[in-house]
Amino acid sequence: xxxxxxxxxxxxxxxxxxxxxxxxxxxxxxxADELMGQGMSERDALREAxxxxxxxxxxxxxxxxxxxxxxxxxxxxxxxxxxxxxxxSPAFTxxxxxxxxxxxxxxxxxxxxxNAVMLKSLPVPHAEELVRVVRKESGDQGPGNPTxxxxxxxxxxxxxxxxxxxxxxxxxxxxxxxxxARRIDGNWVSGSFFPVLGARPLAGRLLTRxxxxxxxxxxxxxxxxxxxxxxxxxxGAVGRTVSLDGHPFAIVGVTxxxxxxxxxxxxxxxxxxxxxxAIVHGAASDLxxxxxxxxxxxxxxxxxxxxxxxxxxxxxxxxxxxAATLPGDWPADIQAAYLHTSLGAEPAAxxxxxxxxxxxxxxxxxxxxxxVVLLIACANVGHLLMARAAARQREMxxxxxxxxxxxxLIRQLLTESLLLALAGSALGAAFARWASGVVVGMxxxxxNQIWLDLGLDLYVLGFTIGVALLxxxxxxxxxxxxxxxxxxxxxxQAQGRAATSGPARFAIxxxxxxxxxxxxxxxxxxxxxxxxxxxxxxxxxxxxxREGVLLVSMDGANTGYPKEQLRTMYHDMxxxxxxxxxxxxxxxxxITPISGMGWNGNIEANGFVPKSDRxxxxxxxxxxxxxxxxxxxxxxxxxxxxxxxxTGGTSVAIVNESLARKVFGAANPIGRLFRIRNGRGxxxxxxxxxxxxxxxxxxxxxxxxxxxxLPLTQTDPFGSSMNFEVRxxxxxxxxxxxxxxxxxxxxxxxxxxxxxxxxxxAASLARPRLxxxxxxxxxxxxxxxxxxxxxxxxxxSVARRQGxxxxxxxxxxxxxxxxxxxxxxVGRLMAGGVVLGTLIALxxxxxxxxxxxxxxxxxxxxxxxxxxxxxxxxxxxxxxxxxxxARLDPMEALREE
Amino acid sequence: MERQRNxxxxxxxxxxxxxxxxxxxxxxxxxxxxxxQTASDELLRVxxxxxxxxxxxxxxxxxxxxxxxxxxxxxQARLYSLTAAGRRQLEQEQESWxxxxxxxxxxxxxx
Lengths: 897, 111
Prior knowledge:
The complex is a heterodimer. Chain A is α+β, with helices and mostly antiparallel strands. In chain A, helix 18 (about 565-580) runs antiparallel to helix 21 (about 735-745). The longest helix of chain A is centred in the middle third of the chain and has 38 residues, at about 355-390. The radius of gyration of chain A is 37 Å and the shape is globular. By secondary structure, chain B is of the alpha+beta class. Chain B has one domain (about 1-110): Arc Repressor Mutant, subunit A, CATH 1.10.10. Helices cover about 65% and strands about 15% of the residues of chain B. In chain B, strands 1-3-2 form a three-stranded antiparallel sheet. In chain B, helix 1 crosses helix 3 (about 50-60) and helix 1 crosses helix 4 (about 85-110). The radius of gyration of chain B is 15 Å and the shape is globular. The two termini of chain B are about 30 Å apart. Chains A and B meet through helix 1 and helix 3 of A and helix 2, helix 3 and strand 3 of B.
């Protein structure tokens, strides 16, 4: 019976049983007929026929068992045979399983990250229906703008019927009521958030539409993790009170452990209704803010509307919605643009993710890298299998001669490679779980915890098994085919060895080695580029000295002080900080370096004509006197801010060299004036009183950033918070207790956040660090694997030509000639690999473009370095068999014939 | 005792079935049983329980193939027929059977 028939029988189950039944009943019926012919009554005949047949059910089972038994028997035989063969060559098995484990493990790890970050749908029912509502500027074809104001949200909630929508906004709440802040991530959510998503509570109840009306009481929902940590259990949390930025909220329910909001990678701990924003922010509430863009909208289309219908209906409702929420204080042209904005919907089954935006490119790059590593590993295993198959030529030939089917032999050999692949994959999958956790750890920082659901799901499992099977079959098939092709006669006579000689048979293995060498060169070049980029980023001069600086972020929201009183308080705070023992210098600013935050705008000056609107953008910061000295940013001209720069006095500014160059050209900027364009027109003329060197503002790898620093006394603070930079003599974190006491003494309701400048800068390098570390690891791994492949091939070639070498030595050839011959072969393989690899590298590394800093993708120094390391390792790999060949005793070699 | 009889007959059952099919052409299971009984002058009775497992085993091994057909009495029956591999198997089995019986009778005659 052919294998496909067997497979079909395996599936047919019930139908097969039915067929068998019919067959056996037929038999009984015929027997009964015969007995009736002999004179029995019909009933007696049937009974007798059944009796003679025996137990029908039992016979059915015995017959059915035959099918399964035959199949299982041959499968079991194959597996037993394969296991025995593998046990007899432990070194081979170990290397093969390890190679596959590394390749599969790395691929599974990166894939499970890609799955968690990019592919997985939100853990809610029918996530594929979810859409995001966006604002589309007229004529803009790209993705829409996802942010909304609360007035816009209220209009969209009440005046369109295309989408059953909900709104949410990111928030960070301080659980502490004074002293050091305990921050948790939270979401402002509309009353329709939980109902539309279809989430269910773990305990208590979730927020509903009736919880979200103006003037609502302060209730909230917490996550399962938060409840477990703070209250011991989900049930324990319901009814308790949690303090959000000093305001008590009653917990009415707990979400399920698998629910994390709609932002992949973040871990929302508390959900508060949007109406409670008025309670938390008081007078500064954004509920009626027509220019405060803090909400995002998602929802499910109503009435099974298709995408085009949803878009059309939203667009139709847009103008009325915009007109109702027009910000009256905007300039006319911007108002017109606002009214012309349309609304649309985009698919959003996988939620949103800041993590996705930042890391999807890097993850894809890594996926390519580990894919290449897997290829190299598989090529290695392929070599090993080839060598083994060649060694078992005799055994195969013998079995073929004794009548074994070729298909059966191939099946047995494939079973071996499949077993190896499955063992390697199981090991790899275990390793992957650990490895992906490590990668997430590398990307998280103290202030930016990333949380991903890395649990094994069907996609990842399917991926791993698929890769395993592909590996086993692909790299086992060719050797198996080869091994069973030898004409039995020739193999038996030639004592095994000679039958495998023949340049053609060996050519594919050579090609594989050249390919391996090429691929590992590409990986080495990529690793080199990423490593050197990272090194350049870490060692570049950012325009300030990052070691030894404590960053303190203070928030006086809970003090209840009005704006002016806060300003005075912070001014005093700065003086007191400077007086603390262990403090060298201190300054204050609205924005700290490399925090990711920024404040920019357009300026106008005499003689300054920006090339475009974008070109005219300048970045701002509000700083105290002593800021530059504390950070170590060099002053190039003019003076620092001082007591003469008071609120309401002449507006002054200190600019950096880039701004001076851009706006004032080569002329001396000191004394020159510029005006800042804001919502109300142009500011008063601002005089440049100092110039400082360029310093990195938001990111280490940014281009020249024209920056203007304004005195704190002449800027509006951001809400109620202030940042302080404190340079210490020793470890900056040692100052924390003193600062805490100091702030507590001024006002116990001030909340504090501590970090160091070096930590903040390092956190911004998470992605380049990840890429550099992993690509270096995989580059070295690939090199090792390729070296093993190279070594194996050369060793095998030497073994094969033992006789020939022995003869040459016996005939008087110089041993060094033998070494040169072997090394020559290594050199040829290497050269081929290097040439191919360099060509591929030149083409492929272009893709790394965005991840490189200070280097081009074809940086010659890196390529030369990679080639050199490859050559060194390859020579070492080839040297061992060469040395052994040179030491060959000719008599021994010839005796082996 | 019964087990022993089963074993011997099982080994030769394949031979008998193959021969039956080669003589008769396609037959269903019951007809095969009848033929063996008749042709052996009632000396051999196939235990009906062991016939169908054996037939299925032979089908798995590729010596016979089976198809559904209709008898003269208009009943649906599964008809087994010999394959080329089955023919070869029949020759082999016949050969080994001849050798076996010859050898056994020689030993028995040895006085």
